[in-house]
Amino acid sequence: MLASDSDQNHGTEVNENWGxxxxxxxxxxxxxxxxxxxxxxxxxxxxxSFETKIPRLPYGRFPWKFEYRPEDHDDGEKTxxxxxxxxxxxxxxxxxVEQPACARFICRHLYNFFVADEPQVPAWSLExxxxxxxxxxxxxxxxxxxxxxxxxxxxxxxxxVGGRLAYRPGVDQQRLADGAHQLRRRAGR
Length: 189
Prior knowledge:
mainly alpha; two-stranded antiparallel ribbon; two-stranded antiparallel sheet
């Protein structure tokens, strides 16, 4: 958030950098939102900032800390991805993860990182996945398990890359194991 100037996103002066990066680079990908969605997401994140940092010298580095400033938040009604309400940043995240495009975008990143190379992210709106069946399988599992699909951590099933799938209560571990097996077969492992 700091690199996206979110500390300069105020209720009276909206900065769209964080809203755009959240939608394009971290959750949905280009072509899956409108310019109005960018503005409304940015409005919802107004008031999200950082505490004033203690100067670095002479004592070394001090960590940044998140700070919510309610007096700087835009409390007006917003329309975002077809939803209407008095949204804040957490509501925006909830709406984003409900979108099928979010599951596909995140799962394509996971596939790219763990299984096989994909085209560069900026080309994703133009180039389909190299293995659309695998991406569909991952995205479906991701959504069916309420975004709880992970490809790392302790767990009972081997993942597509020889790691472990994380155990989460309520996650269908057998479905994850079957999906990982299918991905390993498709990747030739």
